[in-house]
């Protein structure tokens, strides 16, 4: 159950986001956010996929070139199921993960 103060229950955006919502597109809102040096604060995000659950929080902004800039702390429960589903255990055992180059 959501609390009454939850951002998901607000009928209008917080005042800090008001100017961003006046854009007809998400791209326009992101360009304005980038130009003003603003960041998006992620207070709590949770994703569930099968047995795995990822929870995260942090702050993200955009660089002048449009890349992501910021930090997000992620906690993953059930990582082993993700590793299995992506067949990463095989790739890691062959030394193909995190090496930065292809092996001959």
How do the strands and helices of this protein lay out in sequence?
Blueprint lengths: L25 H10 L4 E10 L2 E11 L5 E10 L1 H7 L2 H6 L11
Antiparallel strand pairs: 1-2, 2-3
Notes on the structure:
With 104 residues, the protein is of the alpha+beta class. It has 2 domains: 9-38, no CATH class; 39-104, no CATH class. Helix content is 22%, strand content 30%. It has 3 helices and 3 strands. It has helices at 26-35, 79-85, 88-93; strands spanning 40-49, 52-62, 68-77. Strands 1-2-3 form a 3-stranded antiparallel β-sheet. The chain is elongated, with a radius of gyration of 19 Å. 0% of the residues are buried.
Describe the structure concisely.
With about 100 residues, the protein is of the alpha+beta class. The chain has helices spanning about 25-35, 80-85, 90-95; strands spanning about 40-50, 50-60, 70-75.
For the terminal residues, how far apart are their CA atoms? 54 Å
Mean pLDDT equals 77
Instruction: Provide the number of structural domains.
Output: 2
Q: What is the radius of gyration? A: 19 Å
Keywords:
single chain; 104 residues; alpha+beta; 2 domains; three-stranded antiparallel beta sheet; 30% strand; elongated; disordered N terminus
């Amino acid at each position: 159950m959501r609390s009454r103060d939850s951002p998901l229950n607000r009928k209008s955006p917080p005042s800090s986001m008001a100017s961003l919502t006046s854009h007809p597109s998400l791209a326009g809102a992101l360009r304005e956010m980038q130009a003003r040096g603003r960041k998006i604060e992620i207070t709590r995000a949770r994703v569930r996929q099968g047995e795995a659950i990822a929870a995260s929080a942090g702050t993200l902004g955009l660089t002048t070139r449009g890349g992501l800039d910021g930090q997000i702390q992620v906690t993953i429960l059930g990582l082993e199921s993700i590793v299995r589903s992506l067949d990463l255990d095989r790739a890691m055992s062959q030394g193909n993960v995190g090496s930065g180059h292809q092996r001959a």
